[in-house]
Amino acid sequence: MGSGPDTTAVRTALWRALHVLVDDAPPVLDDTIGLQIAAVDDDWRARPDMDPERTRTNRASIVARARAAEDIVVESTAAQYVVLGAGLDTFAQRQAGAVRVFEVDAPETGAWKHARLATLGLDAPERLCLVPVDFEAGQSWLHEVVAAGLDPEVPTVVSMLGVTMYLTREAIAATLSAAASLAPGSAVVFSYSRPIEMAPPEIQSILRVAAEGARASGHPWLSLLTPDEAAGLARAAGFDDVEVVTSTDLHERYFADRTDGLSPIGGEDLVVARAGSAGVRDAISQDDHGV
Ligand SMILES: C[S@@+](CC[C@H](N)C(=O)[O-])C[C@H]1O[C@@H](n2cnc3c(N)ncnc32)[C@H](O)[C@@H]1O
């Protein structure tokens, strides 16, 4: 990772903005603030990865997963929202309520975003805290967010969107184990990508090009998961209430009435899991073991 933002995080922020700009109204997610934060050149829409036609499924998938996670936050009574691998997430800037947001990301991306938010006057210290953690470095994100002010006694929603594919299975497991120890009433939602051969035939070639591009740009896909494997990781982490929400489910939920045919089918699925009764302090006390 360099000194600027993670390039995959910039790309997904631009896709969210592109959705508002080129797809039919109403948007599934109305987010152009990420474009402001990204500080890209004026000709960003000429980038090959912003081709409106070729990237339709990606764009739909990215707004679907964000919308689904935000709906869980809004529909829950949780007063705290932890965004793991937050990138240029802008829930904290767009929300009308009083949910306290903890954005966790690799130190370089977090520091860059912190500076951009300050420059734009979009930092809101009373409701947004950026927490630097590298999930692959044996650090506990839970320890760090509690140190940053998360109240471990109250229900919390945790999201991890567009991140698992870049992590080893060991890091995914450790990350989910920490989430499973949050207070009762907490929930985690994470996205995963299936192995390419499970995708609809018409988008497999696009995915192969994307996989090669990811590898070439230094962000190789490390973990592609089947639905059973993704749900299994959540159960192994300690969740007993585990639901797989497929890209087809997301289509039915958010895209069925659209007039432009936009659809996330073939994109990422989600796992939604609810925390049991284990205490958060149990997990924190396991920090020495790299949880
Ligand atoms: C594809 S972006 C997704 C960003 C955001 N969640 C979204 O949906 O737009 C992946 C994010 O995961 C973060 N990430 C990847 N590997 C990480 C690691 N080992 N530790 C912490 N963050 C990581 C990247 O910095 C980046 O912000």
Automatic annotation (TrEMBL):
Family per similarity comment: Belongs to the UPF0677 family.
Coiled coil spans: none
Record organism: Gordonia hydrophobica
Domain of life of the native organism: Bacteria
UniProt keyword terms in alphabetical order: Methyltransferase, S-adenosyl-L-methionine, Transferase
Methyltransferase recorded as keyword: yes
Function noted in UniProt: Exhibits S-adenosyl-L-methionine-dependent methyltransferase activity.
InterPro entries linked to this entry: Ppm1/Ppm2/Tcmp, SAM-dependent_MTases_sf, SAM_mthyl_Trfase_ML2640-like
Ribonucleoprotein as UniProt keyword: no
An MF annotation (GO) of this entry: methyltransferase activity
GO biological process, one term: methylation
Class of enzymatic activity (EC top level): transferase
Entry protein name: S-adenosyl-L-methionine-dependent methyltransferase
Enzyme Commission no: 2.1.1.-
